[in-house]
Amino acid sequence: MLFFTQCFGAVLDLIHLRFQHYKAKRVFSAAGQLVCVVNPTHSLKYAPTRCASAQTSVEQGVLPTCHHHEAAHDPQLVPCTCPLFSCPWEGHLEVVVSHLRQTHRINILQGAEIVFLATDMHLPAPTDWIIMHSCLGHQFLLVLRKQEKYEGHPQFFATMMLIGTPTQADNFTYRLELNRNQRRLKWEATPRSVLECIDSVISDGDCLVLNTSLAQLFSDNGSLAIGIAITTSKVHNAEDEM
Amino acid sequence: MLFFTQCFGAVLDLIHLRFQHYKAKRVFSAAGQLVCVVNPTHSLKYAPTRCASAQTSVEQGVLPTCHHHEAAHDPQLVPCTCPLFSCPWEGHLEVVVSHLRQTHRINILQGAEIVFLATDMHLPAPTDWIIMHSCLGHQFLLVLRKQEKYEGHPQFFATMMLIGTPTQADNFTYRLELNRNQRRLKWEATPRSVLECIDSVISDGDCLVLNTSLAQLFSDNGSLAIGIAITTSKVHNAEDEM
């Protein structure tokens, strides 16, 4: 009996996921755009004034230390760049993607234009929605964060970071687009490098910023669909790629 | 001697104005776009929780009453729609523009695409920057407001309102665009009618909202250039025009 109840629950979840997928496709009607449903991760131990020192059930037992601004002993090594978790991992930039996939279970999507569908926007701050995006021969990290920069007034911050150096990041432009109910909001900028701290990007406000009321206007049944596009802003320099 | 000092001051002001004009043209490099330098108006008695009841030196002696939500005795008459001032004036929709120009000294600009250059963005809230925009056979009111929706955290709100009925407003789409330093922010929406209260538009957050930090990123030497474009979103209905 319990087995059947669980099966029924799983089927309902699948229908709900399929329905959200359909809704996002309807909003971004461009054919062939990949829609990715991204579930939130609530950061239990998040400290807004410093680098992310979150610790979730997935990552229990990991030291709550922030490495983002600390100099790595070996200049070839970079600390874990996942903005969600404090993680003692260090490694070469080339293996950051596999670390984020395997250890932090962050999905990776292919395609120049994708739709990021963040669910459960009503959840209290601090909450993050994260995916990786593989495009133009590089990997990008899209972070949507709900945070109370001013106490009692949660805001949404969305930004894209290149899993690469700041020099490589300068070659790209990313665009985030919200489109619903005869309203459209577009943000275009150069991505930051994951070597920079995500928290400083958010505290500088140098990203797409949404008040709760504006986020609600663009949300559909608690989910926010963000269209993402990445283009090259410069001719690639072979040296920059190294 | 005093005369020469004043003349010198006036010349300096003109050079400064010309320089700002040039800067805005440089930012919005599209040829033929009209740049309008808009100076701020500080609202001394502004009450954020209700309709604008400001009283400035220009308007001293005017009753500080808000008419925006009160029913006019004659349904053909509308109250003064200027969001800056509380004004006891009532008149037909057709003469609102001349009232705003003559009594409130609000400039009117022609052209489908213009650049609104708001000066002195650093001034404390509440502050407004207003112009009228004549385009596609209609007049629009562009309002940029600096307001502390949350105490101690001023934000900028920009919106466009049609000097016409809500049915007429539905025929248009307005776009506000900020573009500076490899960053671009675009807001597109249907304008509201001036018959609706500007304060409710702002408290709903249904407009372009900028945090102080984001406004600073787009500002150049204390001035914010906003590109404005208006298009028709529907085929005009002859009945709606009446």
Automatic annotation (TrEMBL), chains A, B:
<comment type="similarity">
    <text>Belongs to the SINA (Seven in absentia) family.</text>
</comment>
<protein>
    <recommendedName>
        <fullName>E3 ubiquitin-protein ligase</fullName>
        <ecNumber>2.3.2.27</ecNumber>
    </recommendedName>
</protein>
<dbReference type="Pfam" id="PF21361">
    <property type="entry name" value="Sina_ZnF"/>
</dbReference>
<keyword id="KW-0862">Zinc</keyword>
<keyword id="KW-0863">Zinc-finger</keyword>
<dbReference type="GO" id="GO:0061630">
    <property type="term" value="F:ubiquitin protein ligase activity"/>
</dbReference>
<dbReference type="GO" id="GO:0008270">
    <property type="term" value="F:zinc ion binding"/>
</dbReference>
<comment type="function">
    <text>E3 ubiquitin-protein ligase that mediates ubiquitination and subsequent proteasomal degradation of target proteins. E3 ubiquitin ligases accept ubiquitin from an E2 ubiquitin-conjugating enzyme in the form of a thioester and then directly transfers the ubiquitin to targeted substrates.</text>
</comment>
<dbReference type="GO" id="GO:0016567">
    <property type="term" value="P:protein ubiquitination"/>
</dbReference>
<dbReference type="Pfam" id="PF03145">
    <property type="entry name" value="Sina_TRAF"/>
</dbReference>
<dbReference type="GO" id="GO:0043161">
    <property type="term" value="P:proteasome-mediated ubiquitin-dependent protein catabolic process"/>
</dbReference>
<keyword id="KW-0833">Ubl conjugation pathway</keyword>
<comment type="pathway">
    <text>Protein modification; protein ubiquitination.</text>
</comment>
<dbReference type="InterPro" id="IPR018121">
    <property type="entry name" value="7-in-absentia-prot_TRAF-dom"/>
</dbReference>
<feature type="domain" description="Seven-in-absentia protein TRAF-like">
    <location>
        <begin position="134"/>
        <end position="228"/>
    </location>
</feature>
<dbReference type="InterPro" id="IPR004162">
    <property type="entry name" value="SINA-like_animal"/>
</dbReference>
<dbReference type="GO" id="GO:0031624">
    <property type="term" value="F:ubiquitin conjugating enzyme binding"/>
</dbReference>
<keyword id="KW-0479">Metal-binding</keyword>
<dbReference type="GO" id="GO:0005737">
    <property type="term" value="C:cytoplasm"/>
</dbReference>
<dbReference type="InterPro" id="IPR008974">
    <property type="entry name" value="TRAF-like"/>
</dbReference>
